[in-house]
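Input structure tokens:
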């Protein structure tokens, strides 16, 4: 990797408390000319899956860079600190908890992996070796490692080689049944498969700040009815959950106020949306909730 002098930065730290600034200050001390692109620091606390999704979407959009991601509920435990090189030439830095692998895949796949040696990172960064917090590896381990790698430092100088097969895989949201149909508790809905003849199974992978509900299905995968005003029956797979009708629309403004719609979102995924309100709140959906989308026939218009 050539030295790009760019680090992208993603955490669940929030902007209050100075945690983000502490990490950036540490990096700038090592590389004063470093450019930092802040992807987000508002990931829900400890939500590795949501952070992985954001990182995988954003990292490929920019130039080759070091991508620093710290959503680390296991900080200070046995989980390993990682550096991963990718086929495109980027390097990812963060904990071995599944956070980095979707972005690595989006950047062409993992070419090599290293378990960072904390003492080696601290020595190379001219930082006191023994002064490492058990609860803030973002500042004391990952940030100095990212800055060193942004100078063009060989990752092999900072850690030992790992077999990429050994890396923790990201947690995939699995459909769960609950009384409220919100996908939080209960038994797996193993019957909600893509082969279900009555519709197309989907799992909620994102709920954004507007209440739009992102699904784990590409919009192009959906069997959209060939009709003038196509729509889907939306069945939330929970005990006693209601059913809804969502019209297929091009954009939010194509919906009447309060009307539920199914759109192709900005990442190419299928998403449920409500004009002027939260679709997630209306439907009672959270990440991991399961539902089924069944194309509506022409005859269904009379229901």
């Amino acid at each position: 990797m050539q030295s790009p002098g760019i680090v992208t930065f993603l955490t669940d730290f929030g902007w209050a408390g100075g945690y983000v600034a502490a990490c950036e200050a540490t990096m700038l001390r090592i590389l004063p000319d470093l450019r930092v692109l802040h992807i987000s620091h508002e990931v829900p606390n400890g939500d590795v899956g949501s952070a992985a999704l954001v990182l995988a979407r954003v990292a490929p959009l920019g130039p080759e860079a070091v991508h620093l991601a710290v959503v680390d509920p296991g900080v200070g435990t046995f989980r390993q600190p990682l550096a991963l090189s990718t086929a495109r030439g980027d390097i990812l830095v963060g904990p071995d908890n599944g956070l980095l692998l979707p972005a690595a895949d989006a950047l062409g796949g993992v070419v090599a992996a290293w378990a960072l040696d904390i003492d080696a990172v601290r020595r190379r960064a001219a930082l006191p070796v023994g002064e490492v917090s058990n609860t803030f590896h973002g500042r004391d381990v990952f940030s100095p490692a990212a800055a060193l790698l942004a100078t063009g430092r060989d990752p092999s100088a900072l850690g030992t080689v790992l077999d990429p097969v050994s890396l923790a895989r990201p947690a995939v949201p699995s459909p769960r049944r609950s009384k409220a149909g919100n996908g939080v508790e209960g038994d797996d809905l193993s019957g909600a498969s893509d082969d279900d003849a009555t519709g197309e199974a989907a799992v909620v992978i994102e709920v954004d700040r507007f209440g739009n509900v992102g699904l784990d299905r590409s919009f192009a995968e959906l069997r959209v009815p060939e009709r003038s005003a196509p729509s889907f029956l939306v069945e939330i797979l929970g005990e006693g959950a209601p059913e809804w009708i969502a019209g297929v629309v091009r954009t939010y403004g194509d919906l009447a106020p309060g009307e539920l719609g199914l759109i192709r979102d900005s990442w190419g995924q299928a998403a449920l949306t409500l004009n002027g309100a939260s679709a997630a709140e209306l439907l009672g959906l959270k990440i991991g909730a399961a539902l089924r989308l069944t194309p509506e026939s022409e005859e269904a218009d009379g229901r």
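The domain at 200-302 is CATH 2.40.30.90 (Elongation Factor Tu (Ef-tu); domain 3). The helical segments are 19-30, 48-58, 101-106, 118-124, 137-150, 279-283.
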